[in-house]
């Protein structure tokens, strides 16, 4: 009986020990699993922290590279701007140097031209004085100095801005007002003309270069002013706003005289023929004018119209 009881008790104790061992094993397994989970969590956190630090490092490096790139770009911009400013400064210096040279050359050229003009003027004045008689010399000695300097009254002639015919009209009028002797007009006029034109006159013989009338013809021819041009100016000339009626009348008279003298209408009969012919020519159609365009300005007498009529008949027959 006791044996049975002991066996049962021993069996119960074994079962209890086994349960305790099983429970202990279960606790150990739970502890191990928890430890592993904690290790995994810690590892995961460590990896996350490593990844975060890596990202932070990469971001920091990226920003640093951006700063370096920006500094490099700013340096390049600064260097480029500095080079640009140096080029600008160099070009400015070159321009100023070139301008100084041009101004020097221009001053030198003007001085040489002024010197040559002065030589021409002195030569013309000397020739003019030598060509006068002793009586005229005595008169000139009393009136050699004009009342006014013509160079203070008129600007130098500029072909781009001035009309040579009006310029000469103004020169003659002011010379008379300044009481300049007519035999010295050429001397005073040369100082108002461009250098090349003054040289053109200086190359003429003394009897032409000292004669204002001849010099005037040279200038009108040089600027292509024919009697026909003066006729057109006479009929088409208008009064300038700043001009007086007296000056306007003077200009008209000058244009008329140049026209009449140019075609040698030196008598009342010739002047009458000239005016009548001009009126007849105004009545003729443009077609006929075009046909006789080469001879049109040369027809200055009514007698010339008969030639036109004969030629016109021949021309009409040829056309038909």
List descriptors:
rod-shaped; 13 helices; mainly alpha; 80% helix; 320 residues; single chain; 0% strand
Characterization of this structure:
It comes from Araneus ventricosus. Residues 2-74 form a coiled coil. With 320 residues, the chain is mostly helical. The chain has a domain at 265-319. It has 13 helices and no strands. The protein has helices at residues 2-131, 134-143, 150-153, 164-177, 185-190, 195-202, 206-209, 212-222, 227-236, 245-262, 268-283, 286-291, 302-319. Residues 132-144 have low confidence and may be disordered.
Low-confidence stretches: 132-144
SS class: mainly alpha
Major sheet characteristics: none
Q: What is the residue-averaged pLDDT?
A: 76
Q: What would the principal axes of the Cα set say about the shape?
A: rod-shaped
How are helices and strands ordered from N to C? HHHHHHHHHHHHH
Strand content: under 5%
Task: Tell me the number of helical segments per DSSP (H or I, 4 or more residues long).
Answer: 13
Q: Please bin the fraction of helical residues.
A: over 70%
User: What distance separates the N and C termini?
Assistant: 177 Å
Over all CA atoms, what is the radius of gyration?
Answer: 57 Å
Protein name: SCAN box domain-containing protein
Organism: Araneus ventricosus
Coiled coil: 2-74
Keywords: Coiled coil
């Amino acid at each position: 009986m006791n044996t049975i009881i002991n066996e049962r008790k021993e069996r119960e104790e074994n079962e209890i020990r086994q349960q305790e061992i099983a429970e202990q094993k279960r606790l150990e397994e739970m502890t191990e699993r928890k430890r592993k989970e904690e290790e995994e969590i810690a590892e995961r956190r460590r990896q996350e922290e490593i990844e975060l630090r890596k990202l932070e490092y990469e971001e920091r490096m990226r920003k640093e590279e951006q700063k370096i790139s920006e500094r490099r770009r700013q340096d390049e911009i600064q260097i480029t701007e500095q080079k640009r400013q140096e080029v600008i400064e160099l070009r400015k210096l070159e321009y100023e140097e070139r301008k100084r040279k041009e101004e020097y050359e221009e001053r030198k050229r003007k001085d040489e031209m002024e010197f040559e003009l002065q030589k021409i003027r002195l030569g013309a004045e000397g020739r003019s004085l030598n060509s006068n008689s002793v009586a005229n010399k005595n008169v000139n000695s009393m009136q050699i100095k004009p009342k006014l300097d013509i160079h203070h009254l008129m600007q130098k002639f500029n072909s781009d801005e001035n009309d040579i015919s009006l310029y000469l009209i103004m020169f003659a009028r002011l010379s008379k007002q300044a009481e300049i002797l007519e035999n010295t007009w050429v001397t005073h006029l040369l100082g108002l003309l461009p250098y090349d034109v003054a040289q053109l006159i200086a190359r003429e013989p003394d009897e032409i270069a000292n004669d204002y009338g001849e010099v005037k013809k040279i200038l009108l021819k040089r600027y292509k002013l024919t009697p026909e041009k003066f006729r057109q100016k006479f009929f088409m000339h208008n009064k300038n706003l700043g001009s007086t009626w007296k000056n306007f009348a003077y200009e008209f008279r000058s244009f008329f005289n140049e026209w009449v003298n140019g075609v040698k209408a030196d008598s009342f009969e010739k002047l009458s023929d000239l005016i009548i012919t001009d009126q007849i020519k105004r009545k003729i159609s443009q077609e006929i004018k075009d046909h006789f365009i080469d001879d049109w300005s040369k027809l200055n007498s009514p007698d010339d119209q008969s030639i036109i009529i004969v030629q016109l008949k021949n021309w009409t027959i040829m056309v038909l």
